[in-house]
Structure formats: structure tokens, C-alpha cells
Design brief:
By secondary structure, the chain is an alpha/beta fold. The chain has 14 helices and eleven strands. The strands form three sheets. It has a five-stranded mixed β-sheet, with helices on both faces.
């Protein structure tokens, strides 16, 4: 039978416990410090790459302009290599698929066209969404003296735009609103700057353009915007990553997305500062660049089931319109939930 403790035995035991606790604390202190250091360095262990190849487009990139990622990656022993400028999303995603780019930002359409062009699992994966603009940074435009007065008048006309970009989605949806299809117009397939030039040189009846090119044309040529992107381009685009890079380097992806969101938040609060930072790269007057910045959106979004469903709806629309050759499943470019938890920083909502 167990005997109850006597008072003196309790006192002795209490002192033993107190001294033992002090001794254990002394012994564990180095271990605790090591554990804290290990936790702080955890991101360093979550990557294999020593170089990260970041893509940027000729339309400008605030992450590149702000130089916010370089210090973070330098501290991790990783070199930042900016690749570009790419004329538009289709060219960027082609480089990503070829392994020349690790992370880049595109509209909703380029990944759909890329996935539809092959039966293989996409080389890219969606890593974050981008908040949409109000649509004023895009438009289907004609010269002010053009006999074309409304979208329905585009039937049979030559329209210049970058095929496989969000310009095509804007055009296709605008035509659908008036009972037309892409097949009802003549496509003048050019890069964004070439499409603008064709329009200005009257080699096309209309142009589907976006900022900064649209802002420049608005300031120099009398034009009429038949339809902007309001209510159509509601996805805002995506950040994509090269699948092997993302799965092998979640820590680096998280650092990049965290800094991209920080830069985006700053840009929306400080458009004048951002305009001054972007103007040298764009080689444009600061006043025009500020107009571009003020009607742009730079924040990021977590990839929710609703956003993925919206992107699937865009893909289904293209297939129904016979623009892409086969029906695709967007989820082939979506990572498992646990991987998104590893790459998505807390500052992205």
C-alpha cells in the first residue's frame, strides 16, 4: 500500500524539484537558442535553387522597379535574374514552359491557350491570383473619325491584337454581348506594340489595347473606346510558377509572393512614387505613367475555389467559341492544398 507523504518529505521533494528545474533550464538553454535559430532559418532549408529567374513584361513591373526582392534573396544566398522584357503574356509563358523563367505574371488567357496546345500536364502551376482592375486600362478602340460607332459594327472588320492574351478575351466577350463571335471579324495577330502601330497606320480598323500603350495613344491620337474591360476582365490575372521550381523551392516562392504583395500595397497607396520609379523603364512621361498606375491593380489574392472556377469558366468559354482546340481542366495547373500553404505568405488575403 502506498503511504501518504509526510510534511518533511514534501519539503525535501519540493527543494529537489526546484533545483532540478534550475539545472534543466541551464542544460536546455543552448538547445532552446539553437531551436530558435533553426526556426528563423527555416526558409533557407526550403529551397534548392541558387538563382531565381523572374520574368517581366514590357508593360512594366513594380516588383522589378522597386527592387524589393533582391535584398531578401541575397540574404538567402540566392541571385535574382530578371528575364525580359516580354511583349506579352503568351511570350512570357512560352519562356516559362521552356525552363527559362521560374515565376511570372500573366492575364487569364495565356495559361489557358498554353494548356490547350498540349495534352501533357502543364509545366506551369498557378501560385497566386491578382486583383482585377475596374477595366478602364483596356479597350477596343477606333479612330475618332471612324464610321465604326459600336461593337456590332466590327463585324467583318480588321482588328489588331495579341492573340492568346487578355485582349482576346475582352474582344471575344464584347462580341458575344452583341451576338457576334471571333470568327465574325478579321484577326490581325500581332504583338501589343505591333498591333498599336498597325492601328495607327490604318492597317487595322480597330485595336484591342491596354496600358501603358493605351494611355499613350489616348494622349496623342483622337480615338473612341467602343468597350473597355469593365465587367469582362474580372479575374485580374495570375502569378505562375514553373512546376519543378515551385515544388522544390517553396520557401523562395513564399518570399517572392510576400514581397510582390508588399510592393502592390505600396503602389496602390503611392501612385506618384511608383510612376516615378516605373517611368525610366517604360521610357514614358511621368504624367502618363501615373495615369497608368492609378487605373491599375497591384495586389495579390489567394487562389480560392471561386477564382479557380472563374478561370475554368473562361477556358470553357474559349472552347465553346471554338477558339481553343480542346476542353481543358484548369485543375491540372493547381497544386495540392498543403503546397499552397507552404508558398502563400500571411500578407496575401
Amino acid at each position: 500500500m502506498n503511504k501518504p507523504f509526510q510534511p518533511q518529505r514534501r519539503t525535501v521533494l519540493k527543494r529537489i524539484i526546484q533545483y532540478s528545474a534550475l539545472g534543466m533550464f541551464a542544460l536546455l538553454s543552448p538547445f532552446v537558442g539553437s531551436l530558435v535559430q533553426s526556426t528563423q532559418a527555416q526558409t533557407k532549408s526550403e529551397f534548392n535553387a541558387k538563382v531565381i529567374n523572374l520574368a517581366y513584361q514590357s508593360s512594366g513591373d513594380i516588383v522589378k522597379a522597386r527592387k524589393v526582392v533582391e535584398p531578401r534573396f541575397k540574404a538567402l544566398g540566392v541571385t535574382v535574374n530578371w528575364v525580359g522584357p516580354f511583349a506579352a503574356g503568351p511570350q512570357l509563358i512560352e519562356a516559362l514552359n521552356a525552363g527559362k523563367v521560374d515565376i511570372g505574371s500573366v492575364g487569364e488567357t495565356p495559361p489557358i491557350f498554353s494548356q490547350a496546345a498540349t495534352t501533357s500536364i502543364p509545366e506551369f502551376v498557378y501560385i497566386a491570383g491578382r486583383t482585377p482592375t475596374n477595366g478602364t486600362n483596356q479597350g477596343i478602340v477606333v479612330k475618332a473619325n471612324s464610321p465604326i460607332k459600336k461593337v456590332a459594327d466590327l463585324k467583318g472588320k480588321k482588328i489588331a491584337f495579341q492573340v492568346g492574351s487578355n485582349a482576346q478575351y475582352l474582344l471575344a466577350k464584347a462580341l458575344q454581348e452583341v451576338g457576334l463571335k471571333i470568327s465574325d471579324i478579321q484577326i490581325v495577330a500581332l504583338t501589343p506594340s505591333e498591333a498599336r502601330d498597325a492601328f495607327l497606320q490604318d492597317k487595322a480598323d480597330a485595336w484591342v489595347g491596354s496600358d501603358p500603350l493605351l494611355a499613350v495613344v489616348e494622349s496623342t491620337v483622337p480615338i473612341r473606346n467602343l468597350r473597355n474591360g469593365a465587367g469582362i476582365n474580372t479575374l485580374g490575372g495570375f502569378y505562375l510558377g514553373r512546376r519543378p521550381f515551385v515544388t522544390q523551392n517553396p520557401g523562395l516562392v513564399q518570399v517572392f509572393l510576400e514581397q510582390a504583395e508588399t510592393a502592390g500595397e505600396f503602389a496602390e497607396k503611392n501612385p506618384t512614387i511608383i510612376a516615378n520609379e516605373l517611368a525610366p523603364d517604360l521610357k514614358l512621361d511621368v504624367s502618363i505613367v501615373e495615369k497608368v498606375v492609378r487605373r491599375s491593380a497591384y495586389r495579390l489574392r489567394r487562389l480560392t475555389p471561386a477564382i479557380i472556377a472563374q478561370q475554368q469558366a473562361v477556358a470553357d468559354f474559349y472552347f465553346a467559341q471554338k477558339v481553343i482546340p480542346r476542353k481543358i481542366d484548369i485543375k491540372q495547373g493547381i497544386l495540392p492544398t498543403l503546397q499552397y500553404q507552404a508558398i502563400t505568405p500571411d500578407n496575401i488575403k
